[in-house]
Amino acid sequence: ESSWPERNPNAINCRYTLINRETSKFCGCLQQILNKEESGRTIAEKTNDAHILFKEMDVKKKRPFTLMHCYIEFAKYPKW
Predict the structure, then answer these.
(1) pLDDT for residue 80
(2) How confident is the model over 7-40, as pLDDT tens digits?
(3) How far apart are CA 41 and CA 46, in angstroms?
(4) CB neighbourhood size of 22 (10 A)
(5) Long-range Cβ pairs for the range 20-27 (8 Å, 24+)
(6) pTM
(7) Most exposed among 18, 30, 40, 55, judged by the fewest C-beta atoms under 10 Å?
(8) H or E stretch including 23?
């Protein structure tokens, strides 16, 4: 038996929509950083810069990107 609460289809769709929106926004931040083509910088440094940019884009709350595990999974699929 699962310890997770049961979710109805609408709740699952709502959660996926949030995950997709935030992950897409982070992907855009990372792409902006990668497009700069700065030599000598590692992907880890560029990813860190994308996290900073993501946080700066949230003008009101300055929330960090907390769905990196989702981005890593989504990035495996080219159609995403």
Answers:
(1) 66
(2) 899 999 999 999 999 999 999 999 999 999 888 9
(3) 7
(4) 18
(5) 22/65, 22/67, 23/67, 23/70, 23/71, 23/74, 25/54, 25/57, 25/65, 26/50, 26/51, 26/54, 26/65, 26/67, 26/68, 26/71, 27/71, 27/74, 27/75
(6) 0.84
(7) 40
(8) helix 9-35
